[in-house]
Amino acid sequence: MLEDFGDQVQQRMLKLQRLREQGTEPYPARAGRSHTAAEALAAFEETEAAGGEPPTVQVVGRLRAIRVMGKSAFAHVEDGSGRIQVYLKQDVLGESAFEIFKRDFDLGDFIGIEGHLFRTRTGEVTVYVRSYQILAKALHPLPEKWHGLKDVETRYRRRYLDLIANEDVRRIFITRTRIVSAMRRFLDEQGFLEVETPTLQPIYGGAMARPFTTHHNALDMTLYLRISDELYLKRLIVGGLDKVYEICKDFRNEGVSTKHNPEFTQMECYWAYADYNDMMWLTEHMVAFIAEQALGSMQFTFQGHQIDVTPPWRRWSLRDAIRELAEIDYMDFPTLDALWTEVQRRGLGMSPQPTWGKLIDELLGEIVEPTLIQPTFIKDYPIDISPLAKALPDDPQTVERFEIFIGGLETGNAYSELNDPIGQRERFEQQGVGAKAGDEEAHPMDEDYVLALMHGMPPTGGLGVGVDRLTMLLTDQTSIREVILFPHMRSEE
Q: What is the pTM of this model?
Protein backbone atom coordinates (compact mmCIF):
# COMPACT_ATOMS: atom_id res chain seq x y z
CA MET A 1 0.00 0.00 0.00
CA LEU A 2 2.76 2.46 0.93
CA GLU A 3 4.30 2.29 -2.53
CA ASP A 4 1.09 3.84 -3.94
CA PHE A 5 1.92 7.18 -2.28
CA GLY A 6 4.68 9.78 -2.51
CA ASP A 7 7.64 9.77 -0.14
CA GLN A 8 6.19 12.29 2.32
CA VAL A 9 2.93 10.37 2.64
CA GLN A 10 4.81 7.11 3.06
CA GLN A 11 6.87 8.62 5.88
CA ARG A 12 3.76 9.88 7.64
CA MET A 13 2.05 6.51 7.33
CA LEU A 14 5.08 4.85 8.89
CA LYS A 15 4.79 7.30 11.80
CA LEU A 16 1.10 6.45 12.08
CA GLN A 17 1.95 2.77 12.25
CA ARG A 18 4.65 3.41 14.86
CA LEU A 19 2.23 5.38 17.07
CA ARG A 20 -0.23 2.50 17.01
CA GLU A 21 2.46 -0.07 17.75
CA GLN A 22 3.41 1.82 20.92
CA GLY A 23 -0.22 1.91 22.07
CA THR A 24 -1.23 5.43 20.98
CA GLU A 25 -4.50 5.86 19.09
CA PRO A 26 -3.83 8.50 16.39
CA TYR A 27 -7.55 9.26 15.96
CA PRO A 28 -9.11 9.37 19.44
CA ALA A 29 -12.85 9.89 19.83
CA ARG A 30 -12.65 12.89 22.13
CA ALA A 31 -10.53 15.97 22.84
CA GLY A 32 -10.41 17.96 26.06
CA ARG A 33 -10.45 21.74 25.67
CA SER A 34 -10.88 24.47 28.25
CA HIS A 35 -10.08 27.48 26.04
CA THR A 36 -9.82 28.38 22.39
CA ALA A 37 -6.50 29.93 21.40
CA ALA A 38 -8.04 33.39 21.52
CA GLU A 39 -9.68 32.73 24.90
CA ALA A 40 -6.39 31.47 26.34
CA LEU A 41 -4.57 34.62 25.22
CA ALA A 42 -7.32 36.81 26.64
CA ALA A 43 -7.30 34.90 29.93
CA PHE A 44 -3.57 35.43 30.33
CA GLU A 45 -3.84 39.17 29.60
CA GLU A 46 -6.60 39.46 32.19
CA THR A 47 -4.74 37.64 34.95
CA GLU A 48 -1.48 39.40 34.15
CA ALA A 49 -3.18 42.78 34.44
CA ALA A 50 -4.70 41.75 37.78
CA GLY A 51 -1.40 40.38 39.08
CA GLY A 52 -2.80 36.87 39.46
CA GLU A 53 -1.38 33.41 38.82
CA PRO A 54 -1.09 32.45 35.14
CA PRO A 55 -3.99 30.16 34.21
CA THR A 56 -3.69 26.50 33.27
CA VAL A 57 -5.37 25.72 29.97
CA GLN A 58 -6.22 22.91 27.61
CA VAL A 59 -5.94 24.05 23.99
CA VAL A 60 -6.34 22.10 20.77
CA GLY A 61 -5.63 22.67 17.13
CA ARG A 62 -3.48 21.98 14.09
CA LEU A 63 0.30 22.17 14.27
CA ARG A 64 1.35 24.99 11.94
CA ALA A 65 5.00 25.42 12.97
CA ILE A 66 7.55 23.28 14.85
CA ARG A 67 11.04 24.39 15.93
CA VAL A 68 13.10 21.82 17.82
CA MET A 69 16.15 23.02 19.78
CA GLY A 70 17.88 20.04 21.37
CA LYS A 71 15.85 19.05 24.43
CA SER A 72 13.11 21.64 23.95
CA ALA A 73 10.79 22.77 21.17
CA PHE A 74 8.49 25.60 20.28
CA ALA A 75 5.40 25.07 18.14
CA HIS A 76 2.36 27.01 16.99
CA VAL A 77 -1.10 25.47 17.34
CA GLU A 78 -4.00 26.90 15.35
CA ASP A 79 -7.72 26.51 15.91
CA GLY A 80 -10.68 28.39 14.46
CA SER A 81 -10.03 31.41 16.69
CA GLY A 82 -6.35 31.90 15.91
CA ARG A 83 -2.88 30.67 16.90
CA ILE A 84 -1.04 30.21 20.15
CA GLN A 85 2.57 29.27 20.81
CA VAL A 86 3.40 26.20 22.90
CA TYR A 87 6.68 25.23 24.57
CA LEU A 88 7.66 21.59 25.09
CA LYS A 89 10.59 20.55 27.28
CA GLN A 90 12.06 17.08 27.70
CA ASP A 91 12.62 17.54 31.45
CA VAL A 92 8.89 18.17 31.95
CA LEU A 93 7.38 15.69 29.45
CA GLY A 94 9.88 12.90 29.97
CA GLU A 95 12.40 11.59 27.46
CA SER A 96 10.02 9.14 25.75
CA ALA A 97 7.13 11.59 25.27
CA PHE A 98 9.45 14.30 24.03
CA GLU A 99 11.12 11.92 21.57
CA ILE A 100 7.74 10.79 20.23
CA PHE A 101 6.77 14.42 19.60
CA LYS A 102 10.05 15.13 17.78
CA ARG A 103 9.97 11.94 15.74
CA ASP A 104 6.32 11.24 14.97
CA PHE A 105 4.51 14.61 14.87
CA ASP A 106 4.32 16.63 11.65
CA LEU A 107 2.97 19.94 10.48
CA GLY A 108 -0.75 19.52 9.91
CA ASP A 109 -1.29 17.07 12.78
CA PHE A 110 -3.99 17.94 15.31
CA ILE A 111 -2.80 18.03 18.91
CA GLY A 112 -4.22 18.63 22.37
CA ILE A 113 -2.04 20.54 24.84
CA GLU A 114 -2.33 21.04 28.62
CA GLY A 115 -0.15 23.45 30.55
CA HIS A 116 0.13 26.86 32.18
CA LEU A 117 0.53 30.12 30.33
CA PHE A 118 3.60 32.34 30.53
CA ARG A 119 5.22 35.12 28.54
CA THR A 120 8.54 34.40 26.81
CA ARG A 121 11.50 36.76 26.82
CA THR A 122 10.38 37.97 23.39
CA GLY A 123 6.97 38.83 24.87
CA GLU A 124 4.86 36.08 23.26
CA VAL A 125 2.18 34.44 25.40
CA THR A 126 2.90 30.70 25.37
CA VAL A 127 1.61 27.44 26.86
CA TYR A 128 4.25 25.63 28.94
CA VAL A 129 3.27 22.06 28.05
CA ARG A 130 2.82 19.51 30.84
CA SER A 131 1.16 16.90 28.60
CA TYR A 132 -0.01 16.45 25.06
CA GLN A 133 -2.22 14.11 23.02
CA ILE A 134 -2.37 13.48 19.32
CA LEU A 135 -5.92 14.14 18.05
CA ALA A 136 -5.54 13.34 14.35
CA LYS A 137 -2.52 12.33 12.28
CA ALA A 138 -2.36 14.22 8.94
CA LEU A 139 -1.13 11.79 6.31
CA HIS A 140 -0.75 14.35 3.55
CA PRO A 141 1.47 17.45 3.90
CA LEU A 142 -0.16 20.86 3.87
CA PRO A 143 0.40 23.41 1.07
CA GLU A 144 3.81 25.06 1.29
CA LYS A 145 3.71 27.44 4.23
CA TRP A 146 5.30 30.63 2.93
CA HIS A 147 3.66 30.83 -0.49
CA GLY A 148 0.26 29.43 0.39
CA LEU A 149 -2.00 27.79 -2.14
CA LYS A 150 -2.14 29.84 -5.35
CA ASP A 151 -3.40 27.50 -8.09
CA VAL A 152 -6.99 28.60 -8.69
CA GLU A 153 -8.18 25.22 -9.92
CA THR A 154 -6.86 23.48 -6.80
CA ARG A 155 -8.20 26.21 -4.51
CA TYR A 156 -11.76 25.73 -5.77
CA ARG A 157 -11.72 21.94 -6.05
CA ARG A 158 -10.08 21.41 -2.66
CA ARG A 159 -11.44 24.33 -0.69
CA TYR A 160 -10.32 22.74 2.58
CA LEU A 161 -6.71 23.30 1.50
CA ASP A 162 -7.54 26.86 0.49
CA LEU A 163 -9.00 27.52 3.94
CA ILE A 164 -5.96 26.00 5.64
CA ALA A 165 -3.42 27.87 3.56
CA ASN A 166 -5.03 31.28 2.99
CA GLU A 167 -6.20 33.36 5.93
CA ASP A 168 -7.84 35.90 3.60
CA VAL A 169 -10.09 33.17 2.24
CA ARG A 170 -11.22 32.23 5.73
CA ARG A 171 -12.07 35.89 6.36
CA ILE A 172 -14.21 36.02 3.22
CA PHE A 173 -16.39 33.14 4.38
CA ILE A 174 -16.61 34.42 7.93
CA THR A 175 -17.85 37.71 6.46
CA ARG A 176 -20.34 35.85 4.28
CA THR A 177 -21.81 34.21 7.37
CA ARG A 178 -22.11 37.62 9.04
CA ILE A 179 -23.85 38.99 5.93
CA VAL A 180 -26.49 36.26 5.98
CA SER A 181 -26.98 36.59 9.74
CA ALA A 182 -27.40 40.36 9.46
CA MET A 183 -29.84 39.99 6.55
CA ARG A 184 -31.94 37.57 8.54
CA ARG A 185 -31.82 39.79 11.64
CA PHE A 186 -32.89 42.88 9.68
CA LEU A 187 -35.86 41.14 8.08
CA ASP A 188 -36.91 39.57 11.37
CA GLU A 189 -36.82 42.98 13.04
CA GLN A 190 -38.96 44.38 10.22
CA GLY A 191 -41.63 41.81 11.01
CA PHE A 192 -40.97 39.39 8.16
CA LEU A 193 -41.61 35.69 8.73
CA GLU A 194 -38.97 33.25 7.50
CA VAL A 195 -40.52 30.33 5.61
CA GLU A 196 -39.50 27.35 3.46
CA THR A 197 -40.83 26.56 -0.01
CA PRO A 198 -40.21 23.59 -2.37
CA THR A 199 -36.88 23.11 -4.10
CA LEU A 200 -38.37 20.50 -6.42
CA GLN A 201 -41.24 22.06 -8.35
CA PRO A 202 -43.66 20.62 -10.94
CA ILE A 203 -43.60 23.98 -12.78
CA TYR A 204 -40.59 26.25 -12.53
CA GLY A 205 -41.16 29.98 -12.41
CA GLY A 206 -40.50 33.33 -10.81
CA ALA A 207 -37.73 34.26 -13.24
CA MET A 208 -36.78 33.97 -16.89
CA ALA A 209 -34.16 31.22 -16.94
CA ARG A 210 -33.59 27.66 -18.08
CA PRO A 211 -34.19 25.05 -15.34
CA PHE A 212 -32.50 21.83 -14.35
CA THR A 213 -34.84 18.91 -14.98
CA THR A 214 -35.15 15.72 -12.97
CA HIS A 215 -37.60 12.82 -12.62
CA HIS A 216 -39.50 11.48 -9.65
CA ASN A 217 -39.56 7.72 -10.12
CA ALA A 218 -42.31 6.81 -7.65
CA LEU A 219 -44.73 9.41 -9.03
CA ASP A 220 -43.44 9.07 -12.60
CA MET A 221 -43.38 12.83 -13.08
CA THR A 222 -40.96 15.46 -14.31
CA LEU A 223 -39.78 17.95 -11.71
CA TYR A 224 -37.55 21.02 -11.86
CA LEU A 225 -35.03 22.48 -9.46
CA ARG A 226 -36.39 25.90 -8.61
CA ILE A 227 -35.07 28.91 -10.47
CA SER A 228 -36.82 31.10 -7.90
CA ASP A 229 -39.13 30.71 -4.92
CA GLU A 230 -41.26 33.69 -5.95
CA LEU A 231 -44.52 32.04 -6.93
CA TYR A 232 -44.70 29.94 -3.77
CA LEU A 233 -43.94 32.92 -1.54
CA LYS A 234 -46.70 34.92 -3.21
CA ARG A 235 -49.11 32.04 -2.61
CA LEU A 236 -48.38 32.66 1.08
CA ILE A 237 -49.35 36.33 0.65
CA VAL A 238 -52.65 35.08 -0.80
CA GLY A 239 -52.95 32.90 2.29
CA GLY A 240 -52.75 35.90 4.61
CA LEU A 241 -49.08 36.03 5.64
CA ASP A 242 -48.33 39.72 5.11
CA LYS A 243 -44.51 39.64 5.25
CA VAL A 244 -42.51 36.55 4.25
CA TYR A 245 -38.95 35.80 3.20
CA GLU A 246 -36.71 32.88 2.36
CA ILE A 247 -32.93 32.56 2.03
CA CYS A 248 -32.34 29.54 -0.17
CA LYS A 249 -30.51 27.88 -3.03
CA ASP A 250 -31.78 28.51 -6.55
CA PHE A 251 -30.63 26.70 -9.67
CA ARG A 252 -30.38 27.99 -13.23
CA ASN A 253 -29.13 25.92 -16.14
CA GLU A 254 -26.92 28.62 -17.57
CA GLY A 255 -23.26 29.26 -18.29
CA VAL A 256 -20.59 29.59 -15.61
CA SER A 257 -18.84 32.95 -15.38
CA THR A 258 -17.35 35.33 -12.83
CA LYS A 259 -20.92 36.45 -12.07
CA HIS A 260 -22.86 33.21 -12.49
CA ASN A 261 -22.86 29.83 -10.78
CA PRO A 262 -25.58 27.27 -11.64
CA GLU A 263 -26.33 26.89 -7.91
CA PHE A 264 -26.54 30.17 -6.02
CA THR A 265 -28.05 31.66 -2.88
CA GLN A 266 -30.82 34.21 -3.01
CA MET A 267 -33.00 36.02 -0.52
CA GLU A 268 -36.55 36.75 -1.65
CA CYS A 269 -39.10 38.65 0.41
CA TYR A 270 -42.69 39.76 -0.20
CA TRP A 271 -44.56 42.54 1.58
CA ALA A 272 -48.33 42.84 1.35
CA TYR A 273 -49.78 46.34 0.85
CA ALA A 274 -46.38 47.59 -0.41
CA ASP A 275 -45.09 48.54 -3.87
CA TYR A 276 -41.70 48.87 -5.54
CA ASN A 277 -41.07 52.23 -3.86
CA ASP A 278 -41.43 50.54 -0.46
CA MET A 279 -39.08 47.80 -1.63
CA MET A 280 -36.47 50.43 -2.57
CA TRP A 281 -36.65 51.77 0.97
CA LEU A 282 -36.38 48.25 2.38
CA THR A 283 -33.42 47.40 0.14
CA GLU A 284 -31.26 50.43 0.86
CA HIS A 285 -31.82 50.19 4.60
CA MET A 286 -31.22 46.42 4.64
CA VAL A 287 -27.93 46.65 2.70
CA ALA A 288 -26.76 49.55 4.87
CA PHE A 289 -27.56 47.51 7.99
CA ILE A 290 -25.75 44.45 6.60
CA ALA A 291 -22.63 46.47 5.75
CA GLU A 292 -22.60 48.05 9.21
CA GLN A 293 -22.98 44.66 10.91
CA ALA A 294 -20.55 42.70 8.70
CA LEU A 295 -17.89 45.38 8.10
CA GLY A 296 -18.51 47.93 10.84
CA SER A 297 -19.20 50.69 8.31
CA MET A 298 -21.55 51.70 5.49
CA GLN A 299 -18.48 52.68 3.46
CA PHE A 300 -16.20 50.10 1.87
CA THR A 301 -13.80 49.64 -1.04
CA PHE A 302 -14.66 47.56 -4.10
CA GLN A 303 -12.05 47.27 -6.86
CA GLY A 304 -10.49 50.58 -5.97
CA HIS A 305 -13.80 52.45 -5.69
CA GLN A 306 -14.95 53.95 -2.40
CA ILE A 307 -18.59 52.95 -2.12
CA ASP A 308 -21.11 54.38 0.33
CA VAL A 309 -24.37 52.47 0.85
CA THR A 310 -25.82 55.03 3.27
CA PRO A 311 -29.49 55.67 2.29
CA PRO A 312 -31.01 57.16 0.26
CA TRP A 313 -29.74 55.73 -3.04
CA ARG A 314 -30.08 57.15 -6.54
CA ARG A 315 -33.29 56.32 -8.47
CA TRP A 316 -32.85 56.37 -12.27
CA SER A 317 -35.29 55.18 -14.92
CA LEU A 318 -34.03 52.58 -17.39
CA ARG A 319 -35.18 54.72 -20.32
CA ASP A 320 -33.28 57.78 -19.08
CA ALA A 321 -30.15 55.75 -18.33
CA ILE A 322 -29.98 54.22 -21.81
CA ARG A 323 -30.94 57.50 -23.44
CA GLU A 324 -28.07 59.27 -21.63
CA LEU A 325 -25.34 56.64 -21.93
CA ALA A 326 -26.21 54.83 -25.18
CA GLU A 327 -27.85 57.87 -26.80
CA ILE A 328 -30.84 55.78 -27.83
CA ASP A 329 -34.42 56.44 -26.79
CA TYR A 330 -35.76 52.94 -27.19
CA MET A 331 -39.35 54.19 -27.17
CA ASP A 332 -38.57 55.70 -30.58
CA PHE A 333 -37.88 52.17 -31.85
CA PRO A 334 -40.90 50.16 -30.61
CA THR A 335 -40.13 46.85 -32.36
CA LEU A 336 -37.23 44.41 -32.12
CA ASP A 337 -36.26 44.93 -35.76
CA ALA A 338 -36.30 48.72 -35.49
CA LEU A 339 -34.25 48.76 -32.28
CA TRP A 340 -31.77 46.19 -33.60
CA THR A 341 -31.27 48.22 -36.75
CA GLU A 342 -30.52 51.32 -34.67
CA VAL A 343 -28.12 49.41 -32.40
CA GLN A 344 -26.23 48.12 -35.45
CA ARG A 345 -26.22 51.56 -37.06
CA ARG A 346 -24.52 52.97 -33.99
CA GLY A 347 -21.99 50.12 -33.90
CA LEU A 348 -22.65 49.30 -30.27
CA GLY A 349 -21.50 45.69 -30.54
CA MET A 350 -24.55 44.09 -28.99
CA SER A 351 -25.44 40.44 -29.60
CA PRO A 352 -28.84 39.59 -31.18
CA GLN A 353 -31.72 39.00 -28.75
CA PRO A 354 -35.07 37.22 -29.20
CA THR A 355 -37.28 40.10 -27.99
CA TRP A 356 -37.36 43.89 -27.85
CA GLY A 357 -37.16 43.87 -24.06
CA LYS A 358 -34.17 41.53 -24.00
CA LEU A 359 -32.30 43.78 -26.40
CA ILE A 360 -32.98 46.71 -24.06
CA ASP A 361 -31.71 44.58 -21.19
CA GLU A 362 -28.57 43.87 -23.23
CA LEU A 363 -28.02 47.61 -23.68
CA LEU A 364 -28.38 48.01 -19.93
CA GLY A 365 -25.89 45.25 -19.16
CA GLU A 366 -23.25 46.27 -21.69
CA ILE A 367 -23.38 50.06 -21.58
CA VAL A 368 -25.08 51.24 -18.39
CA GLU A 369 -24.24 48.63 -15.74
CA PRO A 370 -20.43 49.11 -15.71
CA THR A 371 -20.90 52.82 -14.90
CA LEU A 372 -23.14 52.25 -11.87
CA ILE A 373 -20.54 52.28 -9.09
CA GLN A 374 -22.46 54.00 -6.29
CA PRO A 375 -25.72 52.28 -5.24
CA THR A 376 -28.38 52.89 -7.86
CA PHE A 377 -31.91 51.69 -8.49
CA ILE A 378 -32.55 51.37 -12.23
CA LYS A 379 -36.34 51.34 -12.50
CA ASP A 380 -39.28 50.93 -14.92
CA TYR A 381 -38.62 48.01 -17.28
CA PRO A 382 -40.22 46.70 -20.50
CA ILE A 383 -43.20 44.47 -19.84
CA ASP A 384 -42.00 41.63 -22.08
CA ILE A 385 -39.08 40.81 -19.76
CA SER A 386 -41.13 41.30 -16.59
CA PRO A 387 -44.09 38.89 -16.81
CA LEU A 388 -44.86 39.00 -13.08
CA ALA A 389 -44.70 42.77 -12.49
CA LYS A 390 -47.48 45.36 -12.40
CA ALA A 391 -47.58 47.90 -15.25
CA LEU A 392 -47.19 51.63 -14.64
CA PRO A 393 -50.64 53.26 -14.41
CA ASP A 394 -49.91 55.57 -17.37
CA ASP A 395 -47.71 53.27 -19.49
CA PRO A 396 -48.93 49.71 -20.16
CA GLN A 397 -45.64 48.77 -21.89
CA THR A 398 -43.57 49.50 -18.78
CA VAL A 399 -43.70 47.86 -15.36
CA GLU A 400 -42.91 48.95 -11.81
CA ARG A 401 -39.66 47.05 -11.54
CA PHE A 402 -36.17 47.95 -10.40
CA GLU A 403 -32.76 46.32 -10.30
CA ILE A 404 -30.02 47.08 -7.79
CA PHE A 405 -26.56 48.07 -9.02
CA ILE A 406 -23.51 48.59 -6.82
CA GLY A 407 -19.88 48.60 -7.93
CA GLY A 408 -20.95 48.01 -11.54
CA LEU A 409 -22.61 44.75 -10.47
CA GLU A 410 -26.30 43.84 -10.55
CA THR A 411 -27.18 42.45 -7.13
CA GLY A 412 -30.97 42.28 -6.95
CA ASN A 413 -34.35 42.63 -8.61
CA ALA A 414 -37.75 43.80 -7.37
CA TYR A 415 -41.17 44.95 -8.47
CA SER A 416 -44.72 45.76 -7.63
CA GLU A 417 -46.31 42.35 -8.06
CA LEU A 418 -48.95 41.73 -10.70
CA ASN A 419 -52.02 40.63 -8.73
CA ASP A 420 -54.61 40.65 -11.54
CA PRO A 421 -55.29 36.96 -12.36
CA ILE A 422 -56.65 37.71 -15.83
CA GLY A 423 -53.71 39.94 -16.64
CA GLN A 424 -51.30 37.32 -15.26
CA ARG A 425 -52.81 34.62 -17.47
CA GLU A 426 -52.42 36.88 -20.51
CA ARG A 427 -48.76 37.49 -19.60
CA PHE A 428 -48.13 33.75 -19.33
CA GLU A 429 -49.80 33.21 -22.71
CA GLN A 430 -47.60 35.88 -24.27
CA GLN A 431 -44.56 34.13 -22.81
CA GLY A 432 -45.81 30.92 -24.41
CA VAL A 433 -45.71 32.60 -27.80
CA GLY A 434 -42.10 33.53 -27.14
CA ALA A 435 -41.28 29.95 -26.12
CA LYS A 436 -42.70 28.61 -29.40
CA ALA A 437 -40.57 31.16 -31.24
CA GLY A 438 -37.44 29.73 -29.61
CA ASP A 439 -37.02 31.73 -26.38
CA GLU A 440 -35.68 29.07 -23.99
CA GLU A 441 -36.02 31.42 -21.01
CA ALA A 442 -39.71 32.24 -21.52
CA HIS A 443 -41.83 31.85 -18.39
CA PRO A 444 -44.14 28.79 -18.51
CA MET A 445 -47.86 28.86 -17.77
CA ASP A 446 -48.66 28.14 -14.11
CA GLU A 447 -52.39 27.43 -13.82
CA ASP A 448 -52.22 26.77 -10.07
CA TYR A 449 -50.61 30.16 -9.46
CA VAL A 450 -53.30 31.88 -11.53
CA LEU A 451 -55.90 30.01 -9.47
CA ALA A 452 -54.25 31.33 -6.30
CA LEU A 453 -54.47 34.88 -7.64
CA MET A 454 -58.15 34.35 -8.39
CA HIS A 455 -58.70 34.04 -4.65
CA GLY A 456 -57.26 37.54 -4.27
CA MET A 457 -53.79 38.88 -3.54
CA PRO A 458 -53.43 42.39 -2.13
CA PRO A 459 -51.04 44.96 -3.65
CA THR A 460 -47.61 43.49 -2.90
CA GLY A 461 -43.97 44.40 -3.29
CA GLY A 462 -41.35 41.72 -3.88
CA LEU A 463 -37.54 41.71 -3.73
CA GLY A 464 -34.78 39.25 -4.59
CA VAL A 465 -31.15 39.86 -3.57
CA GLY A 466 -28.25 37.66 -4.62
CA VAL A 467 -26.35 36.70 -1.47
CA ASP A 468 -23.28 35.64 -3.44
CA ARG A 469 -23.05 38.92 -5.33
CA LEU A 470 -23.62 40.98 -2.20
CA THR A 471 -20.79 39.04 -0.58
CA MET A 472 -18.57 39.76 -3.60
CA LEU A 473 -19.15 43.47 -3.05
CA LEU A 474 -18.55 43.47 0.68
CA THR A 475 -15.40 41.33 0.44
CA ASP A 476 -13.97 43.05 -2.68
CA GLN A 477 -14.04 39.98 -4.93
CA THR A 478 -14.61 40.00 -8.70
CA SER A 479 -15.40 36.29 -9.10
CA ILE A 480 -18.43 34.57 -7.63
CA ARG A 481 -16.31 31.46 -7.11
CA GLU A 482 -14.34 33.30 -4.45
CA VAL A 483 -17.44 33.62 -2.25
CA ILE A 484 -18.98 30.15 -2.77
CA LEU A 485 -17.29 27.47 -0.70
CA PHE A 486 -17.72 24.75 -3.31
CA PRO A 487 -18.37 26.33 -6.74
CA HIS A 488 -19.42 24.26 -9.72
CA MET A 489 -16.41 22.91 -11.64
CA ARG A 490 -15.92 20.97 -14.83
CA SER A 491 -14.96 17.32 -14.48
CA GLU A 492 -11.24 16.78 -13.96
CA GLU A 493 -11.26 14.07 -16.62
A: 0.91
